[in-house]
Specification:
Chain lengths: 189, 189
DNA sequence: GTCTATAAGGGGATAGAC
DNA sequence: GTCTATCCCCTTATAGAC
């Protein structure tokens, strides 16, 4: 981002953007080079194994970045926590959502090592969610399942409403969705 | 599938499989031709606009097929309905799940007409879900929101556990997940 | 209707200059 | 470290034979 960033970092950053926007296969190394302001030969100086190598680095970089920015809201009750969580998620930049989507959809074609990185990230998010939720509910098992339910619910919302652009046709904001989830969790119907 | 199927239908079917497995961009028309037992020239006889044209037809075909096979379980209570729904979804062939994922990946790059087909499908599923749910709960608004919550929850589960293969690491079957969702919806925590 | 043959272009990758 | 120049292969697509 800064002009002083090394070309290597710049390549990873620009490649990440292109992968996110177009997918891995649809992105050419010529596009990546152009976006990074260099030639394809320069790519091979930093990434000997070519395009696949850049992909791996993008995944690693994404994981590192996500690790850093993960913070769950504070709240006095489970209901409030879920409402806040929904509100937080709704405020995330589209970039983050797109990146998650891209990796998810790329997943099947990733090498094993990178698959594990992605899975570990998902699981560590669920763990964080579970620990927080366990402050509000009785029973480890209950907290664990609820954490998955909450996590999956929001992921699903995002896929449907953001990725599939259903939000343009149906009127249900993520805030409302989170609020409804909180209500259901609290008292059922 | 039958040997008597026209080559045109066979191409759409085989292309659909390849797109699911590899993605659209990664699939070549040569692969499609080979899978369908013909040459690339034959493809252009049926699909003048080439690969894009085949993509469109696959989407249309997928929508038609989904329309046909969509049945929701019968149940005496909301809780039972949700449990059954989870069990049904768990039994779906991976093929169906993969297709949904693939279309999601492709969505951003689809022409408007095909985008609408996909959205309409999603919305019509939610409508079916909503109508069924409204048998059990009071209030149109409530049924609508709950239908989205249920739909998104299952989509999210599928993404995480099936697509990201978290099911191999974490022990939470879709049956259990559906059961837990039913329990939460019924009485809260 | 389906094939053979091939054109035209773009893709990933590399050798060697600077 | 980065570029110029280029290679080879594979891709999409088409013309014309059968």
């Amino acid at each position: 981002m800064a002009d002083s960033a090394s070309l290597q970092e710049l390549i990873i950053e620009k490649a990440g953007e292109l992968f996110r926007e177009q997918g891995y296969t649809a992105t050419t190394i010529k596009q990546i080079a152009k976006a990074a302001g260099c030639t394809t030969a320069a790519l091979y100086y930093y990434f000997e194994d070519g395009k696949q190598h850049i992909l791996r680095e993008v995944i690693h970089d994404t994981a590192r970045e996500a690790e850093f920015s993960r913070t769950l809201p504070q709240a006095d009750s489970l209901e409030e926590f879920l409402v806040e969580l929904g509100a937080n998620l709704a405020r995330r930049p589209p970039k983050v959502v797109d990146r998650f989507n891209w990796i998810m959809l790329q997943f099947a074609t990733l090498p094993d090592e990178e698959k594990q990185i992605v899975q570990n990230q998902v699981i560590s998010i669920q763990h964080a969610l579970r620990e927080r939720i366990s402050q509000y509910v009785a029973g480890k098992e209950m907290a664990d399942r609820l954490a998955w339910l909450v996590y999956c619910s929001f992921v699903g919302y995002q896929q449907m409403f953001t990725k599939l652009e259903v939000a343009g046709v149906v009127d249900l904001s993520m805030d409302e969705y989170g609020g409804f989830l909180a209500q259901v969790v609290r008292q059922g119907l």
